[in-house]
Amino acid sequence: MTAEPDGLQDRLRRFATIWSRAVYQVTSTSLTRVELEERLLPLAGRLSQALRARTFDAEEGRAVGAALVSAHCTDPESLSRSLDCVDAYLVLYCGEDGPQEDLRARSSRLQHAMAAGYAGALRDRTLAEQEAIAWAAQSARSAVAEALHDSEARFRAVFEGAAIGIGIADLDGNILQINGALQRMFGGSEQTVRGRSVTDWTHPDDAPQVWKLYEELVRGERDHYHVEKAFYRPDGTVLWTNLTVSLLRDADGRPQYQLALMEDTTERRLLNLRLRYEATHDALTGLPNRTLFFERLEKAVSAGEGQRFGLCYLDLDGFKTINDSLGHAAGDRLLVEVADRLQSCATAPGEMVARLGGDEFVALTTGPDTEAEVDDLAARIMHALVAPVSVEGRELTVRGSIGIVEGPAGERGPAEVLRSADITMYRAKSAGGNRFELADPEADLKAITRHGLTTALPAALDRSEFFIEYQPLVHLGDGSVRGAEALVRWLHPQHGVLGPDRFIPLAEHTGLIVPLGRWVLEQSVRQARDWQEQYGGHPAGGPLRINVNLSPCQLTHPGLVQDTVDILERAGLEPEALCLEVTESALIGADDDLLKPLRRLAEMGVDIALDDFGTGYSNLANLRRLPVSILKLDRSFTQGMQQFPADPVDLKIVEGIVSLAHSLDLTVTVEGVETGAQAEQLRILGCDTAQGWYYARPGPPERLHDLALADATG
């Protein structure tokens, strides 16, 4: 609770303020709330004196209740709210010096007296109004004998004391009579308003049906209509009203006059417009926000035949760095400057700029020829961002990536258009940023498919949609099967069988690669154990080896070593039967912390293979510090051996790699062997094992079983 005012007058003023706020909404008065407060202030003083008087005088309370009626607080809710205010605040603000219990009792008696005075005054007022009505009725009856029927209708319709504006006009639109409320609404003299015709009060915002309804009424085809209508005041300002117009007929039912009832809604409309503006505009930049932009975009994409639209979706490059380094206040100032520049770029008819949120902006252009206009708009935006922005004494370079969507209206919805622009913008950003790209339906489809696969990945693992195929590893010396590489596949419900290149990068991006990789390792190790139980090892001795790929995310996972140990122990497979393949690019520049798990696994007997060797530009001297025992030579080095004669450069490169690997006690496996000539050449060069379509494509585990049995039976 805030501190009370110091002086009695301050406390009285506060009490009167609370009182006026409580009753103003239920008081039929032309006074403003502040004016009503001034009317209530002396009443608050009288209540305060009565509360603190030596001798209690109930007459003061009755007088205050009667004064409420005089102030037009005649709604029963006015009395209820007044008594609530007296009960809650009179003692609090005006009775701090006396015993609270006595003051509370006296306050209660004052409330009873106020209610009695209010009821009495309201009764007297009602009687007076009844008497006035009776007098008016008598006058009307007298007028029947002295005047025409039209005069009777006019005088019965006009009630000067009404709180709403009332006007009477003849069927030609000539204004015959207005009341004081209507005169005050228009802010002029009675003659100024009465001197005009109804048909003169047109306004550009009039709805099309307004004057059609008016014509039907004066022709007698309808008895009334209700519309929202604007009027120009004599000073040029606009008056907004809820307007009800009724037709007055004579005793024979013939149309005689039109009666207009007007409620001033100007302030309410201004408030609604303000609220609408705040709801549809960005608070920071003042630009239209996502809500208003979608309304405009929906109109643009659903326009009539022959209309087109163009959309530029802008995202600032490196904005997060500015926020992180200089703070959000500096970032906000940068956004305001960018918004001003964008606003200056979209000044032509049919163009608008909006802020969707963060550092994302959109610019929209509409019309019959947006194909050239949208490119020009994007170029203007890029040019507007060239000049540095000065923030806190720093000159900040602003760059942006823009995705452009352009097309005819009626073919796509607003959500589809915005999604395409968003995808295209990220394509521009991926291409280096500071550029704009045009939407490509094929690229959109790929991005949408990629997003769908990403969201479906977690459920796919739970629904057992993944399976493993195995590609044999063949010894080049004797042609025996020495093992197989496990290759995971996804049996997607809509897209069919997907290779790892379609979903492994998505799994790495989302972190799902860790549980997926653990599942692949479990299944592969269990399969290797089944092979051993079925037909033992390969002819040269030792177990059939299973090769499983590890992603960079798995390498950094703290549970890699323990998970591998647990899986091997549960399956009953010796570590020598497992080979973990790690891409060369994942180990470029690897520090000891990253290599430590691999070293522990290698010490246990697990083979570590350096996959895709030759594509990562690693320092060959670093091979000595890596805990690897196998080099898997990338297929790009052996493609030249598929032709005859083989490319001599490729031969020299492979020969050098094999020699280096053997000097480091590393075995060499070659991927992508597709011809017998290629396999023979690799054997001559000294390669140890190979895999590829020449031997077998990846397939179910029983295929490896058949190949191994064929080797064993010779």
Main sheet? 8 strands, mixed, barrel
Number of strands: 21
Count of helical stretches:
25
**Average pLDDT value?**
85
Which structural class should the secondary elements be placed in?
alpha/beta
3D shape? elongated
- The share of residues in extended strands comes to 15-25%
Strand order of the largest sheet: 13-14-16-17-18-19-20-21
How are the SSEs ordered, and which strands pair?
Blueprint: H1 8-24, H2 33-52, H3 58-70, H4 76-94, H5 100-146, H6 149-157, E1 165-170, E2 175-178, H7 180-186, H8 190-194, H9 210-218, E3 224-232, E4 238-249, E5 255-264, H10 266-280, H11 290-301, E6 308-317, H12 319-326, H13 328-345, E7 351-357, E8 360-367, H14 370-384, E9 389-391, E10 394-396, E11 399-408, H15 414-430, E12 435-438, H16 441-462, E13 466-475, E14 481-492, E15 496-498, H17 500-510, H18 513-535, E16 545-550, H19 552-555, H20 560-571, E17 578-583, H21 584-587, H22 592-604, E18 607-613, E19 630-633, H23 648-663, E20 667-670, H24 676-685, E21 689-690, H25 701-713
Parallel strand pairs: 11-12, 14-16, 16-17, 17-18, 18-19, 19-20, 20-21
Antiparallel strand pairs: 1-2, 1-5, 3-4, 4-5, 6-8, 6-11, 7-8, 9-10, 13-14, 13-21, 14-15
Helix pairs in contact: 1-2, 1-4, 2-3, 2-5, 3-5, 4-5, 12-13, 13-14, 16-17, 18-20, 18-25
